[in-house]
Amino acid sequence: MKLVIVSGTVFGAAEDVAHHAAQVLTAAGLNVSYKPRISYSELVALEPEALLFVTSTTGMGELPENLQLLVNALRDQPPQWAGLLGAVIGLGDACYGEDFCAGGEAIRELYAELGIVELQEMLRLDASETVTPESDAEPWLAELAACLAV
Ligand SMILES: Cc1cc2nc3c(=O)[nH]c(=O)nc-3n(C[C@H](O)[C@H](O)[C@H](O)COP(=O)(O)O)c2cc1C
């Protein structure tokens, strides 16, 4: 099972979580690719069997710029990804109310449009509650590893 991790970040926290996820999931025996700021063509060329997007939210509920470009490209030229397995980790701040983790929600919408099947509920990491998002993600990552190993 080839899992590709994609991250979207402004200040680097989502990238740190993505790096940690790559380590944890590789140690769990999965074939993981992670390249920060991957382009559309690089991503499609990897021929993923499963996708993990790790993204923060910026502005008022927007995706970080690097992911906006990638998501627009995936919408303009949708790859044949129907039936692919997917999961999302959203980083945000609950102080933003309705826009909490809206970037992650935007990726869930993209998954639905492309026919990607979400494996488990999106993990929401709240910067107003924790300063250790990498280790907070570990139980959720263990669940994901178990789903993908089947
Ligand atoms: C200017 C700005 C706008 C933000 N807007 C949102 C938002 O709309 N919703 C949300 O949940 N978090 C929002 N956040 C919080 C960030 O998503 C959160 O701090 C996250 O951990 C940052 O991750 P990053 O370092 O990968 O960018 C915002 C933070 C900043 C500085």
Automatic annotation (TrEMBL):
**Pfam families per the record?**
Flavodoxin_1 (PF00258)
Does the UniProt entry include the keyword Flavoprotein? yes
Which Gene Ontology cellular-component terms appear in the entry? cytosol
One GO MF term: flavin adenine dinucleotide binding
UniProt keyword list: Flavoprotein, FMN
Taking every annotated instance into account, which residue ranges of this chain make up the domain Flavodoxin-like? Answer: 3-145
NCBIfam families of this UniProt entry? PRK05723.1
Known PANTHER family for this protein?
Answer: NADPH-DEPENDENT DIFLAVIN OXIDOREDUCTASE 1, NITRIC OXIDE SYNTHASE-RELATED
Stated name of the protein: Flavodoxin
Organism of origin: Denitrificimonas caeni
